[in-house]
Specification:
Helices cover about 20% and strands about 45% of the residues. By secondary structure, it is α+β, with helices and mostly antiparallel strands. It has one domain.
């Protein structure tokens, strides 16, 4: 994926699986840090840290990878 290419949610889901918008991300993860186009997060259910990519507009987060 080209980080400058805007994709709709459905296309991101087809390519990467689960996709989160900002409210969904806040519900499932604690944000530890940002370095575009990645975000470091801690999953609220079990404390597992990982990272995922995001696009700016519309803001979607995807491709969660455990650390």
């Amino acid at each position: 994926m080209d980080i400058n290419e805007v994709q709709v949610r459905e296309d991101l889901e087809k390519e990467f699986g689960q996709v989160w918008d900002t409210d969904q991300l806040r519900a499932d993860f604690e944000v530890v840090g940002f370095r575009a186009p990645w975000v470091v997060v801690r999953r609220r259910t079990d404390g597992v840290e990982g990272s995922m990519e995001f696009q700016h507009h519309p803001r979607f987060y995807f491709q969660f990878q455990e650390s």
